[in-house]
Design a protein that fits this description.
29% helix, 9 helices, 12 strands, alpha+beta, 2 domains, 3-stranded antiparallel β-sheet, Four Helix Bundle (Hemerythrin (Met), subunit A), 4-stranded mixed β-sheet, paralog of FGE (formylglycine-generating enzyme)
Length: 447
């Protein structure tokens, strides 16, 4: 993960331009991603790797070979100019050519062959990384292409963790519980004053195209929750007939819940008057103090209306997360410019659940808002649109083809996201019906 530039020369080499620091950073990011991929694909047998556990997701073995194929195409072919290793599989692992539901019918590489292919690509990539000049081309400046591929793999690691949540059968993954924090005195909401702030980035070396460029946004004053909405709060919405009253719902959302019989977050069910949930193969009581998870944009929007509030816009969310009212500048993260740590945020699949709402005081923003990085992706009210001056790079299919009113923006990351793919400027997006993703929300209101 890139780090901020030192304030003065005598503080040491510049981590954004020093080639050895760049190589080490890229190596660390690629290695961390591959270690996670290996864990997610080695904890179940080949039958489960090749099965499709939901039509919403690919077989895990497809993700494994796709990761290797993308790495080959960008780092070996585009960056290093090498001949293709397996050109005949490019179309099989093209995410735009084949929808997820159709991928089991493709002639996919078997698990052992997919592992060998990904390992072969990685070995060659490390040789390239050791020798290639990290300057002179946009793909190489600040080791961008290597950072892009590390982010791509980590995004698929999150996707594969979603598949693990959707699979039936006993638990295949375990992790320690997240730490608990003292929330005594934590207010329910805070006021974020009105005025301009800098949104997006033009300087973060591994930022993706939709995060760019930095630009000024003027945001009216608003109040925002200090923590994500909890399961307990959401349960009160349910008990008050939230899923039975059309007045709280956007019309497409109302149609969605009526058509599919939805009356609770995904993976919840009621047994003898108690609400339970299934989490990675384990059935447990719904934890009332934990951020609600696996809700669609429509469900988040309905709850906010019921509560007399609304979802924050994307600009409001980023101002609450990054704006420092003392200096007037925008930070890389809510707590400052330093990289995430275990004390600041729940990231990297180290805990397979969100921490209780109000945790991570060390990760608090200057406005007093917590858990803006990690734990749950947070739905915003905003459509996924380009920033003024947007330019697609290095390919249109990463962002540009998704712009429009069909997709809603999520911000902040989740416990399933690695820090390399989670910045204060990072933008995620999805269809408003999506529930299998690790999505939650917080609410806001006008000042």
């Amino acid at each position: 993960m890139s780090r901020r530039r030192p304030a003065a020369r005598d503080e040491g080499p510049d981590p954004v331009t020093d080639p050895e620091l760049l190589r080490q950073r890229a190596l660390d990011a690629l290695t961390t991603a591959r270690d996670r991929t290996a864990l997610l694909t080695s904890c179940i047998d080949d039958r489960e790797l090749t099965s499709q556990h939901s039509p919403l997701m690919s077989p895990l073995v497809w993700d494994l070979a796709h990761i290797g194929n993308q790495e080959e195409q960008w780092l070996l072919r585009a960056v290093a100019g090498r001949d293709a290793i397996r050109p005949e599989i490019d179309s099989i692992y093209d995410a735009f050519e084949h929808p997820r539901a159709a991928r089991p019918s493709l002639p996919l590489l078997a698990p052992a062959e997919a592992r060998r292919y990904a390992a072969d690509v990685r070995g060659r990539v490390l040789d390239v990384l050791e020798k290639i000049p990290l300057h002179g081309r946009p793909l190489l400046d600040a080791a961008f292409a290597f950072g892009m591929i590390a982010q791509h793999e980590q995004q698929h690691d999150e996707t594969m963790l979603i598949t693990h949540q959707l699979r039936s059968g006993p638990a295949a993954l375990t992790a320690p519980e997240p730490p608990r924090a003292d929330t005594t005195g934590l207010r329910d909401e805070v006021l974020v004053p009105g005025g301009p702030f800098t949104m997006g980035t033009s300087t973060e070396p591994w930022a993706l195209d939709n995060e760019r460029p930095a630009h000024r946004r003027d945001v009216a004053a608003f109040h925002i929750d200090t923590a994500p909405v909890t399961c307990g709060a959401y349960l009160r919405f349910m008990e008050d007939g939230g899923y039975e009253q059309q007045r709280w719902w956007a019309e497409p959302g109302w149609e969605q819940i009526r058509t599919h019989g939805i009356r609770a977050p995904l993976f919840w069910h009621q047994d003898g008057g108690q609400w339970l949930r299934r989490r990675f193969g384990v059935v447990e009581a719904v934890p009332l103090d934990e951020p609600v998870l696996h809700v669609s944009w429509y469900e988040a929007d309905a709850y906010a209306r019921w509560a007399g509030r609304r979802l924050p816009s994307e600009a409001e969310w980023e101002k609450a997360a990054r704006h420092d009212p003392v200096s007037g500048r925008s930070r890389r993260y809510p707590w400052g410019d330093e990289d995430p740590t275990a004390e600041r945020a729940n990231l990297g699949q180290h805990h397979l659940r969100p921490a209780p709402a109000g945790s991570y005081p060390a990760g608090e923003s200057p406005h007093g808002v917590r858990q803006l990085t990690g734990d749950v992706w947070e739905w915003t009210s905003s459509d996924f649109l380009p920033y003024p001056g947007f330019a697609a790079f290095p390919y249109r299919e990463y962002s540009e083809v998704f712009f429009g009113s069909d997709h809603k923006v999520l911000r902040g990351g989740s416990f399933a996201v690695d820090e390399v793919a989670c910045r204060g400027t990072f933008r995620n997006w999805d269809l408003p019906v999506r529930r299998q993703i690790f999505s939650g929300f917080r609410t806001a209101r006008d000042a």
